């Protein structure tokens, strides 16, 4: 009965490949997020969806494309992977789109690009 | 622009000793402030938050933080730590009316038996 789950937990791939990370929440929340945590532990928001609509799109290369098939899922597809994409990617969800709504995080996906 | 600074990247402390994890923010408008905790191999969990009202906020496991507007700080404290408090602690800020949360770089608290 995990609240926010991500797959895979670890992802090792070569430069230039395309990969996807999946996220699912069973909390009934309307809003979902993707964050990137770099090697220095700096955590930065990438995207946010509310009711399947994109509401936050930070300065992220267009090689990154989020997709929300329904309110419970927010997947992240990355094209032409680069060394600098190596990081831990966290999915999160909240009842609403404002910071007043508590965000619940998944366990993270550690992406390593070789 | 808003930002968060956690000056201490690592804080070792003996079990049952008090601890303070420092957090300073910069913003020109009203803010909401948060502390999140990340236990090993897990995602972040909200520990406590300040939205308005009393400047002292508490969590269910004995942590507290005080919003100090004049010093733009939101330090996290616990009078007596346990081994189970070993984790990474992240301070975060959001400007009132904004959608984004901005996180600090985290402080690793290690409780020594």
Give the CA-CA distance, first to last residue of chain A: 34 Å
**Major sheet summary line of chain A:** 7 strands, mixed
Q: Give the oligomeric state of the chains in this entry, treating copies of one chain as homo and distinct chains as hetero.
A: heterodimer
Strand content of chain B: over 45%
- Quick one: how many beta strands of chain A? 11
The average pLDDT of chain A is: 92
Give the % helix of chain A.
under 10%
Low-confidence stretches of chain B: none
From N to C, what is the helix and strand string of chain B? EEEEEEEEEEEE
Per the principal axes of the C-alpha atoms, what is the gross shape of chain A? globular
Mean pLDDT of chain B: 92
Strand content of chain A: over 45%
Describe the structure.
- The complex is a heterodimer of chains A (114) and B (113).
- With 114 residues, chain A is mostly beta strands.
- Chain A has no helices and eleven strands.
- In chain A, the strands form two sheets. In chain A, strands 2, 4, 5, 6, 9, 10 and 11 form a seven-stranded mixed sheet that branches.
- The mean pLDDT of chain A is 92.
- Chain B is mainly β and 113 residues long.
- Chain B contains no helices and twelve strands.
- In chain B, strands 2, 5, 6, 10, 11 and 12 form a six-stranded mixed sheet that branches. A four-stranded antiparallel sheet of chain B has the order 3-9-8-7, with no helix packed on it.
- In chain B, strand 10 and strand 11 form a beta hairpin.
- Chain B is globular.
Gist?
Chain A is mainly β and 114 residues long. Chain A has strands at 4-7, 10-13, 19-25, 31-37, 43-50, 53-57, 64-70, 73-78, 87-94, 104-105, 109-113.
């Amino acid at each position: 009965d995990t609240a926010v789950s991500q797959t895979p937990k670890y992802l090792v791939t070569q430069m230039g490949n395309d990969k996807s990370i999946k996220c699912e929440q069973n909390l009934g929340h309307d809003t979902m997020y993707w964050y990137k945590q770099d090697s220095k532990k700096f955590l930065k928001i990438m995207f946010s969806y509310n009711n399947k609509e994109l509401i936050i799109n930070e300065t992220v290369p267009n090689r990154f494309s989020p997709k929300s098939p329904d309110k419970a899922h927010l997947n992240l597809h990355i094209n032409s992977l680069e060394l600098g994409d190596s990081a831990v990617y966290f999915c999160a969800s909240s009842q609403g789109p404002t910071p007043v709504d508590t965000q619940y995080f998944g366990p993270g996906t550690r992406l390593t690009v070789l | 622009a808003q930002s968060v600074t956690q000056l201490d990247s690592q804080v070792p402390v003996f079990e049952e000793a008090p601890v303070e994890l420092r957090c300073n923010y910069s913003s020109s408008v009203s803010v909401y402030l948060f502390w999140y905790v990340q236990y090993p191999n897990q995602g972040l969990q909200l520990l406590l938050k300040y939205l308005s009202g009393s400047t002292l906020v508490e969590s269910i496991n004995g942590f507290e933080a005080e919003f100090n507007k004049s010093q733009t700080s939101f330090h996290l404290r616990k009078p007596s730590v346990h081994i189970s408090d070993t984790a990474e602690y992240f301070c975060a800020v959001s400007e009132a009316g904004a959608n984004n949360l901005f996180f600090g770089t985290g402080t690793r608290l290690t409780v020594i038996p």
